[in-house]
Design goal:
Order of helices and strands: HHEEEHEHEHEEHEHH
Number of domains: 1
Radius of gyration: 18 Å
CATH architecture: 3-Layer(aba) Sandwich
CATH topology: Rossmann fold
CATH class: Alpha Beta
CATH superfamily: Alpha/Beta hydrolase fold, catalytic domain
Structural class: alpha/beta
Number of helices: 8
Shape: globular
Distance between the termini: 72 Å
Length: 268
């Protein structure tokens, strides 16, 4: 019974005040990507490329349950505006992807109300599409492979844990907000810079889901950061994404675990 109530609470809280501000919709472009089987991934795209040809960071944003659908705009409701504001102020250029999960599906197909879960052997359909699209972007020389960042809220918090466990070498840093992951995977991601956020009074995703992941990471030797907001409910993402200290830390990380192969000079 508690599992059903918790799952319903996530969707209910995320659906409240559904409207997406017009200005953030104008700052992004609706696009689609299809895999080899023709399955479509809907996403919003924001890009600023410097004229000097330099590489830019890639930011992956994973939305919550209430923003699911096929309109390819609802996923902008939370977080994206704040991320773009910071990037515009502090970065020469960037690429940002905010994909949309279809109704009835999830970034990771697990029970949100469970006290724990084992990571599914295969990624969900939408996560597989997200990963395929990231691989495509990384094949573009303008994407800085040492600066790939992922963050997500609620259902997207679960997705953030899932994606870094599947590709621990891919990400420079991760910020899961009010989500949950598989503690058995902690050793795989111990070297990934991670900052975890949760409200102590979260009625949708129990705070122990973040606490348990952080404890497992620390036990595995990780230097993960954890911020728990006292007496805060489910929505702690707004204050988190508006915190300059947080985003400055996030975007200062570099993927030192990744060896980037530079092209040799041409020989005449």
């Amino acid at each position: 019974m508690n599992q059903v109530i918790t799952t319903a609470a996530i969707a209910t809280m995320a659906l409240a005040a559904f409207a997406v501000p017009a200005d953030i919709a104008k700052r992004t472009e609706a696009k689609t990507f299809a895999d080899a089987n023709g399955v479509v991934f809907r996403y919003r795209w924001a890009e600023k490329l410097p004229d000097d040809g330099s590489k830019v960071p890639l930011v992956i944003f994973l939305h919550g349950a209430g923003e699911r659908g096929t309109n390819n705009v609802a996923q902008l409701r939370h977080g994206v505006d704040e991320l773009l504001n910071w990037l515009d102020r502090h970065e020469k250029g960037y690429r940002l992807v905010a994909g949309q999960v279809p109704s009835g599906k999830r970034w990771v197909e697990v029970d949100w109300g469970a006290k724990c879960h084992a990571m599914p052997q295969e990624p969900s359909e939408t996560m597989a599409l997200e990963l395929a699209f990231i691989d495509k972007l990384l094949s573009d020389q303008r994407t800085d492979a040492q600066r790939v960042y992922v963050t997500g809220i609620s259902m997207g918090g679960y997705g953030t844990w899932d994606i870094i466990c599947r590709r621990p070498q891919m990400f420079a840093a991760a910020m899961p907000i009010c989500g949950g992951g598989d503690t058995a995977q902690a050793a795989k991601i111990a070297k990934v810079p991670i900052w975890v956020f949760h409200g102590s009074a979260d009625g949708a995703v129990p705070v122990f889901r973040s606490r348990s992941m952080v404890s497992a990471l620390w036990a595995a030797g990780s230097n993960a950061h954890y911020r728990e907001y006292p007496d805060a409910g489910h929505n702690v993402w707004t204050r988190t994404y508006r915190d300059d200290e947080v985003l400055r830390w996030f975007f200062s990380q570099r993927n030192k675990r990744l060896r980037v192969r530079e092209c040799p000079p041409l020989v005449k």
